[in-house]
Specification:
The protein is an alpha/beta fold. The protein has one domain: Carbamate kinase (3-Layer(aba) Sandwich), CATH 3.40.1160.10. Helices cover 42% and strands 22% of the residues. The protein has helices at residues 3-20, 32-35, 37-52, 64-73, 89-113, 150-157, 180-191, 224-229, 237-249, 265-271, and strands at residues 24-29, 56-61, 80-81, 84-85, 118-122, 129-133, 142-147, 161-165, 167-169, 175-177, 195-200, 218-220, 254-259, 278-281. The strands form 4 sheets. It has an 8-stranded mixed beta sheet, sandwiched between helices. A two-stranded antiparallel sheet has the order 3-4. A two-stranded antiparallel ribbon has the order 6-7. The longest helix has 25 residues, at 89-113. It is globular. The N and C termini lie far apart (38 Å).
């Protein structure tokens, strides 16, 4: 690419930069994009770039594979029920250690290496994410009862990227494992984010799950139930879509499910007119 072509790329991105400047974008990060060092490097670079052009990025992350790896290392069996990790007292201690410790601080460090400014937070800090037990059979898996975004807005106002690990707490001192999709949707809604970008391991919502060319690029919120009934949205994608709808109904303008396996997927979705994945909006 010569200099003229580089300039043209920047000119094409200008309307999108103007659209998002000083707006909040919440990125839910996990899956394969978190496992691969190359993809992780690209994601952190994208987030720093967005931050440097005036977009207020909030990074909400999970870390399921890292938790499973640590449980395996200590000889603890991993069990899932309906996609949720059964979390006893020992497991929730490991969840807190891995998410709020290793994973969170590694992401903060990588953002700084890319030239960004980041501060790591977890849902316990400032009682940001308050929760109660979702179901006794799941143990310390939490259902969010309240989100206090003041720690997040304080960090944003100082020019830092908040990096949030999804553990919650209650007033009795219990710690809970919180689903990252749910937490990101709640946080985005209360912040009044311009958009929520959910990075997944698939292309988006496909009308035929075996045919990537059947990608549905845009879904209105009131169309989703019909797609569930038809089986287009099924299995583990149903709770993800429910989180997307919850975010829209809480005030988020747009929600994107994008393929985190594609390098620079965030920039493609945010700063181009083509985009990738599936966008959810309230209506025309």
């Amino acid at each position: 690419m010569d200099n003229a072509q580089r300039a043209q790329v920047l000119i094409h991105a200008l309307p999108y930069i103007q659209k998002y400047t000083n707006k909040i974008v919440v990125v839910k990060y996990g899956g394969n994009a978190m496992i691969s060092d190359e993809l992780k490097d690209a994601v952190m670079g994208d987030i720093v770039l967005l931050s440097l052009i005036g977009i207020k990025v909030v990074l909400v992350h999970g870390g399921g594979p890292e938790i499973t790896h640590m449980l395996d290392a200590v000889g603890k069996e991993t069990k899932f029920v309906n996609g949720l990790r059964v979390t006893d007292k020992e497991t929730v201690d490991i969840v807190q250690m891995v998410l709020a410790g290793k994973v969170n601080k590694n992401l903060v460090n990588l953002l700084h290496q890319k030239g960004g400014k980041a501060i790591g937070l977890c849902g316990i800090d400032g009682h940001m994410i308050e929760a109660e037990m979702l179901n006794s059979s799941l143990g310390y898996v939490g259902e969010i009862t309240k989100v206090n975004v003041e720690p997040i807005t304080d960090v944003l106002e100082k020019g830092y990227i908040p990096v949030i690990s999804t553990v919650g707490c209650d007033n009795d001192g219990n710690v809970y494992n919180i689903n990252a999709d749910t937490a990101a949707a709640k946080i985005a809604g209360i912040l009044g984010a311009e958009s929520l970008i959910s990075m997944t391991d698939i292309e988006g919502i496909l009308r035929d799950k075996n045919d990537p060319s059947t990608l549905i690029s845009k879904i209105l919120v009131d169309e989703a139930p019909q797609l569930v009934e038809e089986g287009v949205i099924s299995g583990g994608m149903i709770p993800k879509v429910e989180c997307c709808i919850d975010a829209i109904e809480s005030g988020v303008r747009k929600v994107f499910i994008i393929d985190g396996r594609i390098p620079h997927a965030i920039l493609i979705e945010t700063l181009t007119n083509e985009g990738i994945g599936t966008m959810f909006v309230r209506g025309e």
